[in-house]
Structure formats: structure tokens, C-alpha cells
Amino acid sequence: xxxxxxxxxxxxxxxxxxxxxxxxxxxxxxxxxxxxxxxxxxxxxxxxxxxxxxxxxxxxxxxxxxxxxxxxxxxxxxxxxxxxxxxxxxxxxxxxxxxxxxxxxxxxxxxxxxxxxxxxxxxxxxxxxxxxxxxxxxxxxxxxxxxxxxxxxxxxxxxxxxxxxxxxxxxxxxxxxxxxxxxxxxxxxxxxxxxxxxxxxxxxxxxxxxxxxxxxxxxxxxxxxxxxxxxxxxxxxxxxxxxxxxxxxxxxxxxxxxxxxxxxxxxxxxxxxxxxxxxxxxxxxxxxxxxxxxxxxxxxxxxxxxxxxxxxxxxxxxxxxxxxxxxxxxxxxxxxxxxxxxxxxxxxxxxxxxxxxxxxxxxxxxxxxxxxxxxxxxxxxxxxxxxxxxxxxxxxxxxxxxxxxxxxxxxxxxxxx
Length: 417
Known about the structure:
The chain is mostly helical. Helix content is about 65%, strand content about 0%. The chain contains 17 helices and 2 strands. It has a two-stranded antiparallel sheet.
């Protein structure tokens, strides 16, 4: 049963507003048993949340911007934290001056005004994610329960539970997949003006100074451009200036910022590259010879595969079965279906390569891949509803499955972090 567009936005927005707050009532991490990087903040006898151990670093950088140039600053490669923290904390700073709440100092040695600001920022990213999903849902006339399935997928996962109520950058892992899928969708269906692409790329470039993985959004832009415009038989780089502009606008802030820091201090520290060896681990392996380098890559492939969650494998299998079934049921439209879903599968491949390249296969990072797969599943399900009424039960089943998963996440003690 379809619902009117305005009602759809109101209902899903209202549900979304409530969903993450359910995590406040999850059981607290058990002391000495559950490993959580942070401290549990008890709001009352039945509610609380985990304040991540990185919270103070983010808050202090936003509160004391000049420390970004300190040699000991672990977030030196993330200058975007500063304007983000300041802008979103301004309403709470103003409120604090009038009412005294939230306080500047707390027993946890953090500024509650900036804590509230970063939490507001997290929710703004989640709302943006839902908005992008709803735009696609409106275009494709998703049924109510298919919409709710997507909303729950976005707002009920472990990443949201772990990070929505604490200063952190991991909440981007809800936005990046749907933003990338949205770009693939709109570019394939309607086309995106170059001016809009440049604006997106510039925004991604600035966002990369806050959370580098957002470059995948520009990756989606580049992927669709290549699919639509590159002819390998008649390759002429001069005709592909828009692609060059997209890449430049995305990369420029990340290139300029280290130069600024080195010019001012003489040194530059990238915590992700130097401590976690993200991407550069490939080169590290070849320092001991070609054979060692190949073995290092093989070991990482094995680790990457074994790190995938049960949810990932179930989602991937569901996607494959639904896609093959769609090709069988719509033989006459096989070419159109292949052409429509090819960009999504290539996007999935891009995400897999990117997060494999990170070398650190934490669940919170790999969940980006899970969400891409789940959004493709939702798009495939919507196609089944156009074939026959006998498939009308599918959105209900999907909704029940995601609802059960949501309840399980709530019932779990403490988030991984």
C-alpha cells in the first residue's frame, strides 16, 4: 500500500527521530567482561550511553583550535573537526550563557556544550541520510514497509548505537553509503548537472578533512562519469575535463592542509597512515621482497574475508538471489536490468576495494559495505513489486526481519567501539 509523499516524509521522519533514542535503554556494558573504549554515562536507573574514549580529543581540538599544530596532536590530519565542533556547539554555548546549562566543565573533564554540539552534528548526518533515502523512495514509489525497512537499516545498526550519542566521526558510515547510492541513482535516471557535481566534489573535499572516507562519494561521481563518457577505443583526455575537476576539487583540501602545517611547524602527522598504516601497508610488505609483499596481500585478503559479519553474508546472498531471480522473471528486459544495476555493483566493488585497502577490518568500517548491499537489495525488492501482486508480501517480510534485528541490537549490552 502506497502512501502520499507528505505523509511518507512525516511518518518516516518521526520514526527516525525516535529510533536512536531506543539505544539509550540498552543494557550497560558489563564491567570486566565487555571491552568498550569509553565510559558509560548513566542518565538514570534504566538509561545511559557510552562516551567514546576519543570524545575528549575531538572536543578539545574544537575548543582549542591552535592545538591542531601541536606535534602531539593525533587529529592533526582532521582540521575539519574544528569548524564542525564550533558551529554545532554555538547554540549550546549561547544557551549556557543564559541558563548555565549545559555546563562548560563536567566531572568527566569535557565541555558539555561541545559534547551537545557534536551529538547534534551526528543527528544532522543521520537526518541527511534519511532524507537522501526518502528522495529515492519518493521517485521509486516505495511502499510504506519498504521505506520503513530502509529507515531501520540506517538508524538501527550497531554503528549508530555506538556513536550517535558521543563525539566521533564514525557516524559518517551511515551517510557515505546512501550518499554514494543516491549519486549512482540520480546520475543513471536523470543525470546530474556538472555544476552540481562540482559542488558535491568540493563539499566532499572539505568533508575529507573531517573524515577521509567521504571521498567514496566523489568516487561514485567518478564511477558514473566513466561509465557514461569513457570510450576506450576513442580515449581523449582533453574531452574529460569534468572528471579532472571532480578529482581536483576532492583532493585539493587534503593536499593543501599538510603543506600548511609543514610550512608552519616543519612537521606533519597523519595518525591513520602512520599508526594504522592504512593503504601504505601494501608498500610495507614489499620492503622484505616481492614474495613477502604478495604474501602480505594474501594474508590481508584472508583477514578481510574472515572479518565480514554474518549480516554481510546474508545481505550479499539475498542480493545475488534477488538479482538472478529478477533476470529470470524479466527475460525480455534483461539488458535494461543489467544496465541499471551494473553501476551499483561496481560501486559495491569500489567500496570493497577501498575498505580492503585500509588494512584495518573493524566492524564499524566494514558496515559501509553492508549498507551498500542492503540498499541494492531494497532497490531490487522494489522491482519485484512491479512484476506481480504475488510479491506484495516481500516488504512486510523485510520490515519484520529488520525490526527483529533492531530489537536484538537494543537488547545487546553495550556497543562495540
